[in-house]
Amino acid sequence: MEDPIIRFISQYITLTGEEKELLKGQNVIRAFPRDTILLAEGDSPRTCYFVIKGCVRAYYLKDGEERNTDFYFEQQTIVPINYNTDRPSPHFLACLEDCMLAEGDPERNRKLLEQIPALSKMVGQLNEQLLTQKTIAFDQFKQHSPEERYQLLLENQPELLKRIPLYHLASYLGITHISLSRIRKRLAQKNNGRHQ
Amino acid sequence: MEDPIIRFISQYITLTGEEKELLKGQNVIRAFPRDTILLAEGDSPRTCYFVIKGCVRAYYLKDGEERNTDFYFEQQTIVPINYNTDRPSPHFLACLEDCMLAEGDPERNRKLLEQIPALSKMVGQLNEQLLTQKTIAFDQFKQHSPEERYQLLLENQPELLKRIPLYHLASYLGITHISLSRIRKRLAQKNNGRHQ
User: Fold this and answer.
1) Is A100 helix (H, G, I), strand (E, B) or coil?
2) Distance (Å) of CA B41 to CA A182, B38, B174
3) Among A122, B42, B157, B195, which lies 20 to 30 A Cα-Cα from A30?
4) Which of B81, B123, B139 minimises the CB distance to A135?
């Protein structure tokens, strides 16, 4: 099987055989059991991740409650908000499933960019892509009602709904557990009505 | 007065005298009267902007209603969602005030990057910064109630509230006009109570 990191990078730039060997030799892949806290609020984030297998959840603690803001799956990069600063992290990162993650830190990344300069082109394209995705997601969130948001998830990312437990979904949709239950009940009734 | 574009770029990279002259000679600054539609839904966005003076509003049309998603002020860059693709724009861009904007297009930007290679470093840093800002804004939006969102705006960006008419603010906060009126009434009563 091809190295997942090399497969990911090859979407953006063409790597030479030598560069591929260099990347394989990095030895940065680690296994983390489910519920591992990768980053806690107040920590200084010095690690970024690339998800090889599993799911990582980003959340904030507000009034003692966890508010989920992001779920990261296979082939996605995780750059904590304050990774590029020396400020403490406002959020947590935790493994929602058993995970295989590739880790990066500023020093290692700097060295890699020196050794494989084309990587900076990839980082640029990736950031541009992530910015566009984030903007679209935020714009859609603002425009839609909680019920519409849930329906969009059902339609566009059904596989995501299979992997995220319901009790983690409400805050991600910006609503309470009770509202989410009501929405699901209403939609189930509507669908039953349609099938009769 | 120093050229606003050069002032902006100099926050990121050091420009030589020659490069400054090159930038000054670009002649890309244009005036747009208030209410000019810079980009309409369905158009192919081929222009990005830098706000020298004024305010630009991004909005979507949903069920015949305008839903505001972003307001851009002085010293901010505007890159439409589909600027880097050939897909039609899902949103509009309109001048909320009389504006002075610097315009860029992919061809001109490509040439400039060739002539001033250090600019690509700026673009990289800028995208990274914009991604972080967008992520923080989205995370906060999800975590806060509409009333809290309005209060945060009052506390952190009072100058923004002075320039955005109230009827444009409700959809930006993800609520209806009626809800915003109720929130403002409730806060006014609370503040009156506090001052008595």
Assistant:
1) strand
2) 34, 10, 20
3) A122
4) B81
